[in-house]
Amino acid sequence: MDIKSNSLYSQMQSMSLQAMGNKPPAIDVDAIGINGTASNTVGKINESSSNFGDMLTQALNSVNDLQKDSGDKKRAFEMGDSSVTLGEVMIASSKSGIALDATVQIRNKFVEAYKEIMSMPV
Predict the structure, then answer these.
(1) Which long-range contacts does 43-51 make (Cβ < 8 Å, 24+ apart)?
(2) Does the predicted model carry a pTM greater than 0.70?
(3) Is residue 34 predicted with pLDDT exceeding 90?
(4) What is the DSSP string of the chain?
(5) Which of 19, 79, 20, 82 is nearest to 55 (CA)?
(6) More confident position, 14 or 67
(7) How many whole angstroms separate alpha carbon 25 and alpha carbon 47?
(8) Smallest Cα–Cα separation from 19: which of 62, 60, 49?
(9) Which of left, alpha, beta for 121 (phi over 0: left; psi -120 to 50: alpha)?
């Protein structure tokens, strides 16, 4: 499962817009100079109530929930629970496997980006 950098960037942009409620980011008009360039003052750009850390935590929690659900269904099926079918077990297992693979790929991209940033000359 190979994630291209442009595809990852566009997915991150769409997630950012989704987190902000599809509103463009707020621009601090006072931080823009006379010639249209931003001055040295650093203003808060993202006024949304959620931040990246919260979004990441929610994503990891949802992956964890899928893993728990898959394990519970497997256990129930193995114990002979007639309310859980083999199809449900296989679907839950596939969902949790895909979510875990995507999480690992995202982690790998973050580590790669971190290493690239750390190797940049200052």
Answers:
(1) 46/20, 48/19, 48/20, 48/21, 50/19
(2) no
(3) no
(4) ----HHHHHHHHHHHHHHHTTSPPPP--GGGB-TTSSB-S-------SS--HHHHHHHHHHHHHHHHHHHHHHHHHHHTT-TTS-HHHHHHHHHHHHHHHHHHHHHHHHHHHHHHHHHTS--
(5) 19
(6) 67
(7) 8
(8) 49
(9) beta
Length of the chain: 122
Structure tokens at 97: 């496997």
Across the range 11-26, mean pLDDT stands at 65
Place of tokens 């949802």: 62
pLDDT of residue 29: 45
Q: What is the pLDDT of residue 52?
A: 82
The identity of residue 33, as a single letter, is G
Residues 50, 19 contacting (CB under 8 angstroms): yes
Structure tokens at 109: 């991209």
